[in-house]
Amino acid sequence: MPTVYITRKAHFNAAHRLHNPDKDDAWNEATYGKCNHANWHGHNYDLEVTIAGEPHPETGYVMDLGRLKRIIREAIIEPCDHRNLNMDVPFLKGIIPSAENLVVAFWQQLEPHITEARLVSVRLWETERNVAEYRGH
Amino acid sequence: MPTVYITRKAHFNAAHRLHNPDKDDAWNEATYGKCNHANWHGHNYDLEVTIAGEPHPETGYVMDLGRLKRIIREAIIEPCDHRNLNMDVPFLKGIIPSAENLVVAFWQQLEPHITEARLVSVRLWETERNVAEYRGH
Amino acid sequence: MPTVYITRKAHFNAAHRLHNPDKDDAWNEATYGKCNHANWHGHNYDLEVTIAGEPHPETGYVMDLGRLKRIIREAIIEPCDHRNLNMDVPFLKGIIPSAENLVVAFWQQLEPHITEARLVSVRLWETERNVAEYRGH
Amino acid sequence: MPTVYITRKAHFNAAHRLHNPDKDDAWNEATYGKCNHANWHGHNYDLEVTIAGEPHPETGYVMDLGRLKRIIREAIIEPCDHRNLNMDVPFLKGIIPSAENLVVAFWQQLEPHITEARLVSVRLWETERNVAEYRGH
Amino acid sequence: MPTVYITRKAHFNAAHRLHNPDKDDAWNEATYGKCNHANWHGHNYDLEVTIAGEPHPETGYVMDLGRLKRIIREAIIEPCDHRNLNMDVPFLKGIIPSAENLVVAFWQQLEPHITEARLVSVRLWETERNVAEYRGH
Amino acid sequence: MPTVYITRKAHFNAAHRLHNPDKDDAWNEATYGKCNHANWHGHNYDLEVTIAGEPHPETGYVMDLGRLKRIIREAIIEPCDHRNLNMDVPFLKGIIPSAENLVVAFWQQLEPHITEARLVSVRLWETERNVAEYRGH
Fold first, then answer.
1. Cβ contacts of residue F24 below 8 Å, gap of 6+?
2. Distance between CA atoms of residues F79 and F64, nearest Å
3. What is residue C21's DSSP assignment?
4. Are D98 and C59 in contact (CB under 8 A)?
5. Within 10 Å of residue E8's Cβ, how many Cβ atoms?
6. Is the pLDDT score of A1 beyond 90?
7. Angle at CA of residue F39, ends F36 and F41, nearest 5°
């Protein structure tokens, strides 16, 4: 049976700031530059979630995409959309919201819910020029 | 010698409907929702075909892209473009035209013609938010 | 007071066919070519609706975009999405669903609902290469 | 002599919040919904500035695009990029940063610097689905 | 009867160089910078041609788009694609190939052929960030 | 520790021509067609560079993206932008500038500079429809 990969895109807008509270201001400014700005900045984040599995012979689906869309919405979009990633999202508490750390945290939120297929990639576009991806290991 | 991956994009417009004729209407409605609508709906499908091989020292080409374009056109675009994927395409007879099933069927159409390189991926964008990919196994 | 133009995008997928039932098959085939194919084809339609007005001093809004989104959804997306534009849409009965005729029909559906601003443009992308626009006159 | 329109795109990331400080929380919540969230949210803003004029016979330019790029950078991008539009931008003080109000404010910043051509449009994409435009009157 | 605007996109790749042969090297270097580089550079040009007219009651078309596509191909794409805009295109002889001058020259090539509708805009994207438009006056 | 993949995009415009100087004109014309045109053509090249590594616990970064941007600029963009890939770029001397050969050459330019992470992919879009990728082996 063939393995097919399905990618679903989603979108959210959020404020964030790169800042390590264990470090002083000079370290943060030197490390993060304008991304450390105290009054926040923000992004239109584009999220791509890829799952893999065998298409079911009766449905032709690897997984019901409506269900995948709801999982992404409940696990990621609702807690993050129009929010402050440093302050408002319970599962990001204590995490510096770099794109790298976000894709790892998003993977951990999504994976327990995707039972009928295998999660293989979480990609996050922070801008049109920067993308981070986590593949689970 | 290095292996280089070449992706060529193509495009077609088609009508389709998700419907399993072995199941009753209630099952189809519950499984496919609005994608089961009796009078069809349609998409602008974007197709990405990736091949791999070593660039030939005399040409710098893994494969002549004009030839790849013609293979894609003859194997996929001409039979599918401005057609009904459930009714009109000989190689899709008996196949529920989900994106998953389409990428597997497209792979089977393309692979015998790509003799000078290795087919490694067939991706199909059904909408801007949904993509299916088959990698041949 | 300045006039500001606000554009909201929406999306739907539909089947259609270009066919004038008052003409014979030869005329239809000669006029529409593959767009006349009997078993339908379809598109991912992108719709852009532009309104104009003065930003309200208390809100900074020309019009509440959530309300505009709902008007577009109820007037256009719900009747057309995952439907057959020739067969299923009451307000398109008797209309050949060319992009030209669609933008005029969509304008007529939208305009009565946009009372707090002025409708100035309805644009419809049938493919990435073809767009039709109606400006109301 | 022909009039030619030149559009230059630019980009910035910023945090903002829709909030009218002269109104109470209930009014703000009812008017702006999630855009009123207290801890800010943010966007990748895409800006399009269009100027018009006659191409100079010696250069073929309506205006040196490098100069236009610098004007946009100094007047808009540097004060707004990676900033909080409610708190950090001097020329936005006292302005609710809706896309409507932003395009009017950006016009006022740009126009005095564009002396060799006529400013005709400032467009701002707040998301891929929402655009505001001001044409100067 | 309503007026509808139809835009058709096309694409070509070409080499060019901004250089005024009536001026010396210092003037050209100061005016055009890296766009003056002696050994050429090039672009993927995206062209948008907009026509306007009333949809014909029998066809729903302002103009047959297949015919518009052929006009654009014969008038612009075939002479310019994979060519050097300074050296190879007869209708550009003696013209500095700035985007401004190109859209005016393209208009003059297209207009005589568009007899069943009114040409209203020729837009040329030189890069994703720069666009020139000519509206015929 | 998780491995995260970071992709950074960059852009340059260049002229080129596919031509093997060891072969005669008939061979070149037969092999490359319009890409062999003597007076050059050109492209807007989009480059995507992907690196992989573990996010640093103190910064949340796999690698400072500002540093990656500078490496790409100095190694690729500055030597290639607004240049002729056959004539002007020292590290491309003797290389037929097909997309395949370019991604291998770009890899060799980039890899020595990326010391804090692992280079995993170099992708080059020659047009919107053609992409070449090299993964280092």
1. none
2. 23
3. T
4. yes
5. 18
6. no
7. 65
At position E49, the amino acid (one-letter code) is V
Active site residue A126: yes
* Residue D37: per-residue pLDDT: 97
At D70-104, the pLDDT tens digits run 999 999 999 999 999 999 999 999 999 999 999 99
Q: Do A15 and D44 touch (CB under 8 A)?
A: no
The rounded percent of chain E whose pLDDT value lies above 70 is 100
A111 CB contacts (<8 Å, ≥6 apart)?
A119, A136
Angle at F127 between CA F125 and CA F131, to 5 degrees: 35
Residues 6+ apart with CB under 8 A from B86: B15, B16, B17, B19, B40, B92, B97
Question: If contacts are CB pairs under 8 Å, which of residues 3-32 in chain A contact chain B?
Answer: 3-10
With touching defined as 3 or more inter-chain CB pairs under 8 Å, the answer for chains B and E is no
Model's pTM, two decimal places?
0.97
Nearest CA of chain F to the CA of B31: how many Å? 35
Question: What residues of C are in contact with residue E12 (Cβ under 8 Å)?
Answer: none
Q: Cα(A4)–Cα(B101) distance, rounded to whole angstroms?
A: 9
The rounded distance, in Å, linking the Cα atoms of E90 and E76 is 11
**F6, F12, F68, F69: which to substitute to probe chain A, counting the most A Cβ within 10 Å?**
F6
Query: E6–C104: do the CB atoms touch at under 8 Å?
Result: no
For residue A71, the surrounding DSSP H or E stretch is helix A65-72
CB-CB contact of D103 with C4 (8 Å): yes
Q: What angle do CA C53, C54, C59 make, to 5 degrees?
A: 115
Note the Cα C38 to chain centre separation in Å. 23
pLDDT at residue F95 is higher than 90: yes
CA B118 to chain CA centroid, nearest Å: 17
Q: For chain D, which domains are there? A: 4-134 (3.30.479.10)
- Contact at 8 Å (CB) between F68 and F114? yes
> How many CB atoms neighbour CB C20 within 10 A?
16
β-bridge mates for residue B52, sequence order: B5, B118
In contact, D42 and D123? CB cutoff 8 Å? no
Q: How far apart are the first and last CA of chain E?
A: 25
A14: enclosing H helix or E strand? strand A4-16
- Which residues of chain D have a CB within 8 Å of the CB of C46? none
Confidence (pLDDT) at C71: 98
Instruction: Report the pLDDT averaged over residues F52-56.
Output: 98
C-alpha A16: how far from its chain's center?
14
pLDDT bracket for residue C25 (50, 70, 90): very high
Strands E4-16 and C130-134: antiparallel
Looking at the predicted structure, is the pLDDT value of residue D1 above 90?
no
Contacts for C109 with CB less than 8 Å, ≥ 6 apart: C75, C76, C91
Q: DSSP label at A106?
A: H
d(C-alpha B10, C-alpha B72), whole Å: 8
Closest Cα in chain B, distance from residue F93 (Å): 14
Assembly ipTM: 0.97
Task: Tell me the C-alpha distance between B55 and F98, whole Å.
Answer: 9
Q: Position F22: which residue type?
A: D
Residue E100 near residue D4 (C-beta atoms within 8 A): yes
Query: What is the average pLDDT across A69-78?
Result: 98
CB contact under 8 A, D14 and A41: yes
In three-state secondary structure terms, F122 is: strand
- Tell me the average pLDDT across B101-105: 98
Asked if pLDDT for residue A35 goes beyond 90, the answer is yes
Assess whether E56 carries a catalytic annotation: no
As given in the structure block, the two tokens for residue D115 are: 């002396």
pLDDT surpasses 90 at B1: no
Amino acid at B112: P
Q: For position A135, what pLDDT does the model report?
A: 98
Is D82 designated active site? yes
